């Protein structure tokens, strides 16, 4: 771990129940930070906080930059942007002391600012949507909000709050996406300015998946800037924007005491690198690292992504690393070393729609719980009671999810299975049977066919138990494995399990899910009725990685569990939106892991063959 850029957690997505419109990348820099250290300058780090259900939690953080009051952070925050949601963010700047943990002392806090990611409606009292807001407590529990586009346009609102700082109305938040670039003063506690400190946040909307590139750089014969040892070089790459401003794209690690450094390969999106413009200029700087933050300039060069792509087998792309001052003063000066692009790997990143539009079919299977705990279907209190005027919870969940899935299956035929009942002709308990009682063809025509098969099945079976779901999971996983062996993105499976209680065969179910996570399959479990489903949350994996009884983790998170009672008063669309929210990501994760491209004309995507 070097002193310029300490290890950070990978980019994290801010997820939510709504449909993701696009990705947004946020880049952060600061100026004129407070100097909290006695002997050196502050070592700043920016923490990105998000507000969920009224609580602030850390989403991600930048690297620590040593001894620097004007840091430009290389870390990129990646967030999902939801048009219909107000996504509240808070940037907090801290001075880090030795470790990567955040101090609790007031003097560790260098300032913060709150904002929203997207546009929000204006409130009636404010006429401009781009307001900054500062809280000032003038008396005990009385606050002034000072707002304005700038210092020349103040707007003050006075009101009383009981015991705590008032909540900022939505349109008073700084808005990032709407402005593309946000420059705001950092505030300490009680609304005090942190000197002349400012934070700048650049936002870029990524409208599509344009892939990423993996680059490997090295250098030879760099100038020696140190007196008693060799230079400690690192490389910075900046993108030149349309307005001629420069945006840091990547900063390499420091290679100690080496004039011929080989830097670690790194990955960067094409949006970040060149805004998907092959001719966009890139400014590359080579520095000799200094622990006090006063890095010595070695040289620079300009490149484009088109130039980089000239690399081929056995051939490398090179640039002279030039110090303009030396070039101007020294007649025979050639360069301060040579920087070499030794390898370039271009990766296309596919989206869920790429696979669907490329021909991937979604095969939908429903598995219904027919255990005795549901109650006698002839009794109006039963969860399986067929009310001619009101569908039961099983039917509501089935229709809500199934009607969406059927749009992705060309033949619109769906498997309908049952478990936990005694079935004819011998009335033996079965945990895997076709509800149309045709073991050779368990499929039904469209969702309406599944509904009819369910209603016709109820009088013919005896509800029994226990609640074993592993047999059906194993069955569908085996079916999906057959499609997975085809080695193309032609079919993906969704298994909807409707159950009224916690599964009895939990160990076998965990084992089955771990096995199924290697196949093109997603599992949705909807808990019907008022049972305590706490133990079912373990299958979801949201609170940790699901493991088999032997400790083997799932390859990918494929299970989504939702209690139906949470959506009793909501529309069917709300339930479907929730339970299907993870499916697009799961589809992409499976095919990406297998390095399988969409079924498309190879000419459209050169280098991608199935």
Architecture overview:
The chain is an alpha+beta fold. The chain folds into three domains: 133 residues, Immunoglobulin-like (Sandwich); 136 residues, Immunoglobulin-like (Sandwich); 242 residues, von Willebrand factor, type A domain (Rossmann fold), CATH 3.40.50.410. Helix content is 16%, strand content 33%. It contains twelve helices and 30 strands. The strands form seven sheets. Strands 21, 22, 25, 26, 28, 29 and 30 form a seven-stranded mixed sheet that branches. A hairpin with a 4-residue loop joins strand 23 and strand 24. Helix 8 runs parallel beside helix 9. The radius of gyration is 30 Å and the shape is elongated. The two termini are 39 Å apart. Keywords: Repeat. InterPro entries: C2_dom (IPR000008), C2_domain_sf (IPR035892), C2B_Copine (IPR037768), Copine (IPR045052), Copine_C (IPR010734), VWF_A (IPR002035), vWFA_dom_sf (IPR036465). One of its GO terms (cellular component) is plasma membrane.
